[in-house]
Task: inverse folding
């Protein structure tokens, strides 16, 4: 049973997401152009996205492994064939 | 925690990741696409199989381009014959050079030295020799 109602969870999560990403969103919609080192910028972006991809992968795979282990099939003793 | 809550949390997390990736992609596009205002424009013309560079004062260089550290340069890239691609690998600069069209790209060198400029679109027999030198002066 959830401690909070589902709607509250959704709204809270949405606010959390937007507050976490608001600096990036603010920058993305800004108009000022900046001087950047293109090569450094591209590699930073690559490492950032790779980190995110690995974190998501670990969470998804970890969850799968947990579920598979938690709900694994129990050992069944073979019934002796009576002849 | 009920199944419904878990599912909505999962949906929220996926949407959050998509928003985040979209926002940084948008930001990257803006930073790379928008040329800074104080950029010096250099006209780059590609033809089989060499590069010509024209500075704002009208001086031309063939096979080498001289720039200075700390300045921002905007390249107006075009071609005379077939499609080429203007590429400075070290500075992550690459854009197509297309006849009848002017494409734009900018960069700001921060280290003096000599760097490779090459054609990155197969353009004929001597494509592999279509190179030039970028000279970055302090």
Result:
């Amino acid at each position: 049973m959830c401690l909070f109602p589902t709607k509250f969870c959704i709204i809270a999560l949405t606010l959390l997401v937007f507050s976490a990403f608001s600096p990036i969103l603010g920058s993305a919609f800004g108009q000022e152009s900046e001087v950047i080192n293109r090569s450094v910028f591209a590699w930073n972006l690559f490492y950032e996205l790779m980190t995110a991809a690995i974190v998501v992968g670990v969470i998804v795979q970890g969850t799968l492994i947990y579920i598979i282990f938690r709900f694994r099939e129990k050992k069944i003793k073979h019934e002796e064939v009576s002849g | 925690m009920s199944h419904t809550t878990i599912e909505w949390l999962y949906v929220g997390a996926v949407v959050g990741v998509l928003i985040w990736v979209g926002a940084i992609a948008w930001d990257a596009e803006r930073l790379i696409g928008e040329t800074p205002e104080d950029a010096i424009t250099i006209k780059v013309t590609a033809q089989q199989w060499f590069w010509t560079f024209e500075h704002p004062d009208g001086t031309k260089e063939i096979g080498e381009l001289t720039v200075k550290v700390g300045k921002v340069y905007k390249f107006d890239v075009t071609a005379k014959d077939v499609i080429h691609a203007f590429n400075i690998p070290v500075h992550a600069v690459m854009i197509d050079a297309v006849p009848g069209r002017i494409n734009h790209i900018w960069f700001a060198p921060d280290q003096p030295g000599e760097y490779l400029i090459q054609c990155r679109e197969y353009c004929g027999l001597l494509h592999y020799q279509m190179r030039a030198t970028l000279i970055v002066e302090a």
Notes: The two ends of chain B are 63 Å apart (CA to CA). Chain B touches chain A at residues 1-2, 4-5, 8-9, 12-13, 15-17, 19-21, 23-24, 26-28, 30-32, 34-37, 72, 90-93, 107-108, 110 (CB under 8 Å).
